[in-house]
Amino acid sequence: MSIGIPREQVAEVFGRALTVSMRWGAYAALGAAWTMALLSALLSGEPGAWASVGVLTGLAATLALVVARPSVWTSVLHLVAGGIATYVVAVLVLADFPLPDFASTLMVAVPWIVIILSGTPRPRSAVAAWWALLAYLVGLVSLATATTAVGLPWSLNVPATVALGLVLTVRVYDARNLRSGRREAAGLHRAQRRVREIEIRREFESRATERLHDTALNHLLALGGRGSGPLDPALRSAILHDLELIVGRDWSEEAREPGRSVLQSAVSIAQRHGLDVRVSGTPEAIDRLHPEAMAALRDAITQCLVNVADHSGAHEAEVSVATDGAELTVAVVDDGSGFDPDAVPEDRLGIRASVRGRIERVGGEVQLWSTPGVGTTVLLAVPEHAR
Amino acid sequence: MRGARLRLTQQSVDPVASVATWGIAILHASLAVVGIVAVVLMHLDEIVAPVLSAMSIGFTAAAAAGVIVWTAPRMAPMSNERLWVVMALAIGAAIAESASTAGANRLISDDVGPMVVGLMLIALAPYCSWQSLLTACGVSAGILGILTLESGQYSSIEAPPPVFMVVAALPVLVLGAAAAGYSRAVVAEVLAFDRSAAVAVLARDREVRAGIARSVQEGRVTVLGRDVLPLLAEVTATGNVTPAQADRARELAHQLRSALVAGADATWLDDLVGYELSRGSTRISVDDPHGAASRLPEPQRATVAAVVAWLAGGQVSSHSLELRVHDEDSGCLIAATATGLPARAGLRADADNLLAVARMNFDRARMQVRDDSIHLELAYAG
Fold first, then answer.
1. What ipTM does the predicted assembly reach?
2. Per DSSP, what are the bridge partners of residue A280?
3. pLDDT-based confidence at A256, cuts 50/70/90?
4. How many other C-beta atoms can be found within 10 angstroms of the C-beta atom of residue A342?
5. Which of A48, B38, B170, B291 is the most exposed place for a label (fewest CB within 10 A)?
């Protein structure tokens, strides 16, 4: 979906579109006139009809020139060619059909309409309207000369006048009205920028939430849960490590530099929590992921293993990595106490933010199976080309 | 993808501009009615079946009414079926006009029926794809050309029949081609702008991301720096945890968890409202218990943001704005109710314009405007 062109570009964009539109109309008019002249020449064999084919071909050539190299000079040349074509066609047609009101019909006005539609060298409507008016005057003089030449009275040509009226109407409307109605478009563009900024802020807020959950919150819970007494050296080491992460590092930089081996990093953190981890499958495949996906997977695996260490009662877990070339899957399995996934309180962020949030942000998905007393399996799947 | 692109219209890619073109659609449709009435009056001496003349005026008026009603902002989007109904009526008008002078039509080339068909195509150019317009143009030109073969026999002009066909079809061909050309060019222009805008957005994103990342990190570290970080530093420095520190850790954990959960539960809509509130605009409330607003893709979010800014910001300045978001299958329904609207000229027109944009971006959009309130519903199916 698009929300349209901003105010400052409207004049150029719609001016160009209207110019193309009128050229298409001119092509159709010229094509039809040329076909009529050719049919007349072929079916009647009159030399005059071939003259019509000739001047219309010349007019087509100058139209091609205006389209290919729009300039004041090529437009002037096109108007001159149109004036000549209008005169020649009108003289020939009126000589064949010397009816008093025939000069007011479409039969004599097609080359004239062609230049009204396609004369402008500039797409801007304010300029194009003046060129249409100039083209009308050129045709007016040509037709008046032609009617005089064949001895018929001058009469207003309705189709050419209607063509001028239509061109002026849309050009003036474009120049004045289309721009004045753009206030909401400007509002939409501002809104789009605002939403984009909100999205980006939300993404970083989510990352911050995950990071603080995995570090500060987990440590506070550990301190509160273990009560008073000497600080466990492993916990002290983890807190010091994470304090450096929180205070001393650029959080976004860290995400782009996931480290040498993703799984090693996750396993070493789990080991600090007293968990033995067995790795199987093709763990090296993780290191081929996009850095964003790699970092997300590393942190999600780490959180899964920390959950096992802190909550399952199990002393070991298995991490199994598999890939089919399109998707990389990591299964984190333990045979601990398990839990009822539906009974997890809504204020628990371990799975929701630190695992699911991270994986879904890089286009992956998370499945979790757990049964009390049996154990837990978390399946993390990430597209191999995910960012 | 290519097929979808070929079906695009100005109304679908730039809904606001197609709202602005409604005026000219009305003008062209009205011009067709005026034209056929004028020509019927001028050709009274050629009319052999007055009923058919009246029918030609009636068909033209019906086609014009169709154009005016179906291109109105409140009726967006225009469908292909509606285009063909308008075309059928316009072609019917042209046939009736031609038949009304059968055997007495002297010039053929001064018939206005083909012009009526062409004007309808021009009026519909911002609302239909160029393919539909070109097809409608070709079909109408063919019908009118064939029809002329019969009436050409009675003309006072002697010309080969194919010439009559081309003359009769010429207004349709010229105006139809112009309509199709406009539709194709304007869609191409808007899509080209979108592509360049997307590149600019990506470049801007990089700058914005760096700034936001920094501010988020600083904000979080500042909050943690008040209590959490000092406590963690203390216990690691002493290697011992006192009962008071353990209690404090539990208390801080509870507070931190609550703050993190509140942040995780919030959606972009909460953030948007927070932004509007920070600007001191209208009192705004959001009721989105299941976070359904997060199901909206970014373009639809921009429309909602524009609606919120319009209703709560300087342009309308309602007294209060209530946003309710409901689950709806895989999508959601957003209901916005603004009350306490000050009397303002042009409110209705602005509301219609915004509704037209919403109708293009949502599966369902409806709005009720009362004296001092506006209720808007936007449904996205997902």
1. 0.75
2. A320
3. very low
4. 5
5. B38
